[in-house]
Design goal:
With 374 residues, this protein is an alpha/beta fold. The chain folds into two domains: 207 residues, Quinone Oxidoreductase, Chain A, domain 1, CATH 3.90.180.10; 141 residues, NAD(P)-binding Rossmann-like Domain (Rossmann fold). It has 13 helices and 18 strands. Strands 3, 5, 6, 9, 10, 17 and 18 form a seven-stranded mixed beta sheet that branches. The protein has a six-stranded parallel beta sheet with strand order 13-12-11-14-15-16, with helices on both faces. It has a five-stranded mixed β-barrel with strand order 1-2-7-8-4. The radius of gyration is 20 Å and the shape is globular. The chain starts with a strand and ends with a strand.
Length: 374
């Protein structure tokens, strides 16, 4: 069948992307589904910093690649060996397929699934397949999703079934922003009522961490960013205090606000300097959770003695340490109950043809989340 998709032809094209157009709109051939695959009509796809990191080369991937990893859609066809999904059901994609059998999946940590990670790194589905092509040239998949296409082929392990009354522009955000950010607060940090929390970086993931911490009944909730517009939105979402990191030392500001540091610091920028600031802003005995993905060549330096002498903890969080089939429905229920105001993360809805300009806006920090509706 034919599908229209945004294809990353090469990384590191110059900005503005509206001019250099690293993502080209093409009509592709899509084959499948095979026996163990699902054909999904993509209805919503989000623009995320992880996609931007691939475009600018800080998260290298194979090209040409059908980009996009945060999405929702409708099942249109299933392979003969697929169980648990049928045509016309609504689904949210997850960007790490969990095989269910590796040592991580067996202990409830599918975000670390080894076959899923290997497939993502190879730019294939978890079964090794590549289903997009153009004039006989095979294209790569992105995170087993390839959301910037009207239709895509996915493994059932990349899908979570949801009710069909959830708007696609909202459903899409649960696939990455909410799962990653709110999951970091609920699962990785395990925020408890009354604890002090600082969130560094207020993009879609950082704001999701903020509303996640708020839903966990955090006490003092400090939002840190460089843009006043983001800090204003954070206050609307429940931040008790805000710190403009461009106008002061955020570490000193947080220590002043909390009499020595927060119990939990969450970093969502993917910048080594910010990770260091988050770690320094945590109190003695405090925990720092890092969500962002720095360039693979960048190294983190912290005073080693603080780990023991101050009993500080530094933890990574990938995909919000979530079990998607458990956590996505749970987060949707909190959204329906008004405890996770996910709709306020949505900055705008754009057409596929505007995708390059959308990434310009994301790079400038002008937006939290933009969603393409097909």
């Amino acid at each position: 069948m034919k599908t229209t998709a945004a294809v990353l032809m090469e990384m590191e094209r110059p900005m503005p992307y509206a001019d250099s157009r690293p993502l080209e709109i093409q009509e592709l051939e899509l084959v499948g589904p095979a026996e163990d695959e699902v054909l999904v009509e993509v209805k919503g796809a989000g623009l995320c910093h992880s996609d931007l990191s691939t475009i600018n080369g800080s998260r290298p991937r194979q090209t040409p690649m059908v980009l996009g990893h945060e999405a929702s859609g409708i099942v249109r066809e299933v392979g003969g060996a697929v169980r648990g999904f049928k045509p016309d059901e609504h689904v949210i994609f997850t960007f790490i397929p969990g095989c269910g059998a590796c040592r991580y999946c067996r202990v409830g940590r599918p975000s670390l699934c080894e076959p899923g990670m290997n497939a993502n790194n190879a730019g294939t589905l978890m079964n090794g397949g590549r289903r997009f092509s153009n004039n006989g040239k095979s294209y790569f998949h992105h995170c087993g999703v390839s959301a910037y296409s009207q239709f895509t082929i996915a493994m059932p392990e990349s899908l979570v079934k949801v009710d069909d009354d959830l708007a696609f522009e909202h459903a899409t955000l649960f696939g990455c922003a909410v799962m990653t950010g709110a999951g970091a607060a609920f699962n990785t940090a395990n925020v408890r009522p009354g604890q002090s929390v600082a969130v560094f970086g207020l993009g879609g993931v950082g704001l999701s961490a903020l509303i996640g911490a708020k839903a966990c009944a955090a006490g003092k909730l400090i939002a840190v960013d460089l843009l006043e517009s983001k800090l204003e939105l954070a206050r609307e979402l429940g931040a008790t205090d805000t710190v403009n990191a461009g106008e002061c030392d955020p570490v000193e500001a947080i220590r002043d606000l909390t009499n020595g540091g927060v119990e939990i610091a969450i970093e969502s920028v993917g910048n080594v300097k910010v990770i260091e600031q988050a770690y320094k802003s945590a109190m003695r005995g405090g925990t720092t959770v890092t969500i962002g993905l720095p360039h693979p060549a960048h190294e983190l330096k912290i005073p080693a003695v603080t780990l023991a002498a101050e009993e500080k903890t530094l933890k990574g969080s990938y995909q919000g340490s979530c079990v998607p089939s458990r956590d996505i429905p749970r987060f949707i229920e909190l959204f329906r109950a008004g405890q996770l105001p996910v709709e306020k993360l949505l900055t705008g809805i754009i057409p596929l043809e505007e995708i390059n300009a959308g990434f310009d806006r994301l790079h400038k920090g002008e937006v939290a989340r933009q969603v393409i509706l097909f």
